[in-house]
Amino acid sequence: MTVLDLAGVGIGPFNLSLAALAAPLDGLRAAFFERTPEFRWHPGLMIEGTTVQVPFLADLVSLVEPASPLSFLSYLKDRGRLFPFYFAERFHLPRAEYDDYCRWASGRLPDCRFGHEVTAVEWSTADNAFALEVRPAGRVLARNVVLGVGTAPAVPAALRSLPGVVHSSDYLPARPDLLAAADVTVLGSGQSGAEVFLDLLRRRATSGLRWLARTPAFAPMEYSKLGLEQFTPDYVRFFHGLDQAVRDRIEPAQWQLYKGISAETIAEIQDELYQRTVGGGWPGVTLTPGVAVTGARERDGRIELTLRHVHQGTTATVLTDAVVCATGYVERDLRALLAPLEHLLCRDSAGRLAIGTDYRVRLGPEVTGSLFVQNAERHTHGVGAPDLGLAAWRSATILNEVCGQPVYPLPARTAFTTFGLGGQT
Prior knowledge:
Number of helices: 12
Radius of gyration: 23 Å
Strand content: 15-25%
Distance between the termini: 44 Å
Largest sheet: 5 strands, parallel
Structural class: alpha/beta
């Protein structure tokens, strides 16, 4: 059996970036496996007019190899759309365009094997390689494995079993029912919550719409130029070098870096609300931050939410017909996939995988191969873990380690800010 140099589990944007940068490397045997039949990126949130929250240069390859035939500009050239893009003067892409670009790239990467599900990963001492169980391919051997299985929608426990509750990731299929419901509540103050609220505000009558959030305000995302340097490799290295307890304290306080709302979306919401005051009166919608949902139950065919104001300490209940949970995502549970490796995995005091600066999971000394992760390392690498702008740099870092040499030379410095004392990082 041929032993791969690199096997990728999952094909989202991050492992697709890895596949795109791995493709031109001579002699590197790689394969990437994805259980779904084709690449799709958040199909339930392809709301008309929504954009990706990072510049177009945050594609699969450009921040490492801008001359790649799989760059976004190469995609535009292939589609015959360079001049329209030039005149459009767009820095942030429509979400549907980013999805089309990634599907275009995946179709040019023969090492991407869709319709293949990896069910288990173990270390085979006899083969001196990882052994992957892949449906329907069977057993696959690889010296290095990269987990890029993405995240899963997070729904508050009290709401999970109730009818009429949908996560924002499934918003578009549920939109007809939400428009027909007499009363709809949107939970969550991030970009997805704002986009869902805005879409419903534009499409529904002026009453029966509520937007609740646990954060103290419907706040804008941090988008200042120096503030964005917290999404640079320099900051990643600084964050990784901090003590675990310090990292755990810092990361929740950085919520506006990745849980805020774009200033443009906030302005559009305010504009829509303002238009409804023409002629007098106020729109029949409710926007309340600082509110936590402490309980939920079905009552007479409707949903009763128990609320607590985090600053007032007051409580209330509301009846609604449908709830959209724009409550974010959690890292996928890897225990079943990695069960055969469990005795070899190193974990921190909170039971999370111990991950090095090079995105390598610490394993027992008997394992001579490497297990890497993509977007499963926020506890060690910070808020940049799910950010598309770091995708190419992280992929290049992993490939440099797999190849044992800098096949993609990376800059030593990426930020004007010096994040620590006694050196650049």
